[in-house]
Amino acid sequence: MKQTETRPKVREDWSAMTLYERFEQAAIVVLTGIIMIIIVSALWQLIREVGLRLLLGGLDPLDYRTFQAVFGMIFTVVIALEFKRSLLVAVERRFGVVQARSIILITLLAIVRKFIILDLSETEASKIGALAATVLALGLVYWLVRDQDMRERSEAQDL
To answer: Alpha carbon of 102 to those of 28, 46, 96, 99, 152: distances in Å?
Structure first.
């Protein structure tokens, strides 16, 4: 939907909202702005880091420490973008702020980032096992939530 098409709809929806719903929407807009600032800052740091490493000849993608640093920074940007997108979906579709699938996906991305930046030589096996078990549990929960959403959509279409 184009921005010009959403403005009248937002105005119509705004007048129909309760005071708390208006507060919730305003808070989401403020959070979106803050996250945009964080994304720009993280992206700038990523560009600067990669640029400096390229100029100084220190960008060796086969070096594990370089891989950890660069991809850890990339995942930070991706996580922030996904978080911002989930807030925008809440604004546009007026879903509740807390979306289980989005939170599970963001958490999975954060744990994957942790695995990437983790120094395996200094990490206890129990910590790696706990992170792996968390990923499996979150993957199962994500699958169950997604499956439930698909069933609800198909039931709604059948009606």
So the answer is: 15, 24, 12, 5, 17
Question: At a CB cut-off of 8 Å and minimum separation 6, what does 120 contact?
Answer: 128
**Residue 30 zone, left/alpha/beta (φ > 0; ψ -120 to 50; rest):** alpha
pLDDT tens string 98-124? 577 888 888 998 998 898 888 888 889
Q: Which residue has the tokens 């705004």?
A: 14
**Exposure string for 43-71, b = 16+ CB within 10 A, e = fewer:** beebeebbeebeeeeeeeeeeeebeebbb
Q: What would the two tokens of residue 27 be?
A: 């808070």
- pTM recorded for the entire structure: 0.69
Q: Distance (Å, rounded) from C-alpha 92 to C-alpha 83? A: 15
Count other Cβ atoms within 10 Å, centred on residue 97. 14
